[in-house]
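Exercise 3.2. Students should predict the tertiary structure of the chain below and write it as structure tokens, then compare their answer with the key that follows.

Predict this chain's 3D structure.
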Amino acid sequence: MSPQIILLMLASLLCAVLSGMGIGNAGLFVLYLTAVAGIGQLQAQGLNLIFFLVSAAAALLIHVKRRKIPWRLTLFLAVIAALAAAVGACVATVLPTSALRRLFGGMLVISGVLTLFGKRKGGKKSAP
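Answer key:
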């Protein structure tokens, strides 16, 4: 195996461990792929989606086994997500990479701010 493949595998493992600890892996993995590995934004996001599918499949199996899935809501959200993904894929093919980077960065900032200052289930603000 080439050193680059080994480094990518180690970065994936580190992102998976951090994700398991509650730290969002998408931003970390895409940042690593674009900034360190030199992979283009669109390809990095595609690799991140593959990475996500593997971890989501494992989580799905556990939740199915524990019978914790509201199937009607899940089906509804899956249909909406598939439509949104198709629209997003079409938009991504016509936007320049610089615009995709700015949009992705903006989404990460908004997500971080909402996570930092959002309310928890009990109505209390989360502590920074």
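Discussion points: DSSP finds five helices and no strands in the chain. The helical segments are 3-20, 25-35, 41-65, 71-94, 97-117.
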